[in-house]
Amino acid sequence: MIYVHIPFCRSFCTYCDFYSEIASDEDFERYADAVCREIAGRKEEITDEVNTLYIGGGTPSVPPLSVLKKIVSSISKGPYQEFTIEVNPEDIIEKGPGYVEGLRDLGANRISMGVQSFDDRILRWMNRRHNAERAEEAFHMLREGGFDNISIDLIFGFSMLTEKLWEETIEKALSLSPEHISCYQLSIEEGSHLASLFSKGLFKEAPQEYCSFQYNLLCKRLREAGYHHYEISNFSLPGKEALHNSAYWRRVPYVGFGPGAHSFDGRVRRWNSESIFGYTFEEEVLSAEDIRVEKLMLGLRTDRGLTEDFLHENCSPESLDNLVSGGMLVSCGEGRLRIGEDYFFVADNVIRELI
Questions:
Q1: Which residues are paired to 5 by β-bridges?
Q2: Mapping DSSP to helix (H, G, I), strand (E, B) and coil, where does residue 264 land?
Q3: Following CA atoms 93, 95, 98, 103 in sequence, which dihedral angle do they give, to the nearest 10 degrees?
Q4: To which H or E segment does residue 173 belong?
Q5: In what order do the strands lie in the sheet with 262-264?
Q6: Count of alpha carbons within 13 Å of 142, Cβ hemisphere only?
Q7: DSSP structure class, residue 274
């Protein structure tokens, strides 16, 4: 598994705290050179088992295609079983069919597009660059360009998103028939513009009961439409689950390149500093307790859950009995237990009790 971070955006979303910068064309080239140097110095970490490449950000569709090509070529791997690139709808429209063809020529076979909403008022509030019409147009352009594995992101869990708007958003998403839908509850992240609004009393969080209602409605409609709810925030048509992200939840080792990127070998977690040029890295060695907690937190996010043996060995019998008898933990076959879908929204509480 390889992850490459592209730390560039044209503008900053209201809710986002990911590391990104607004840069010039000269910065793009200097950044590419810095990442290529990092890749060359860490070649031994790219093993023969690597079968996925994920280019995320930031907004990877902001820099010119030549920048992505330089970085991908320097990795000297592929073809990949899954090669995902995150894109902004506005970039797809502005750059046109030739850009989409260029992504295909690069080797990408999966697109993750940040739609977030199909309501123009909400998109303006989020400071997104596209509108609803352009998001739909971009989706069709990707389809016509040959991409048969497209994921779209949506956001729920805020008061501006009324029940009617949320229902319309879900139906619009389903009308496009994307292979994958990722849906996240809006959260206040330190350092984001939203956090600043909240601290000034200009934004109020929606009640958890309302957020839970929106989440459960999403689960119901996507289940009815044939989507597999394989992780708390992720839904796919059968066989279109994200291979790269699924490996994270299984704690498969991965290597990350670029400023702000993380790497993991099963025991040591390493991360690069957030600076476009000349970035350094730090690392931590996970203790046995760290690993136990990670396995619980990550494994129970998925519909595969964890083995009963692992849970019995690492959790108190009383907690397990209470959660099973209460229907929060259910069997998913093959001697495994998972959090029931009805309790996915409060998964953190379930996991906290086990930890």
A1: 56
A2: strand
A3: -90
A4: helix 163-176
A5: 262-264, 268-272, 281-285
A6: 32
A7: S
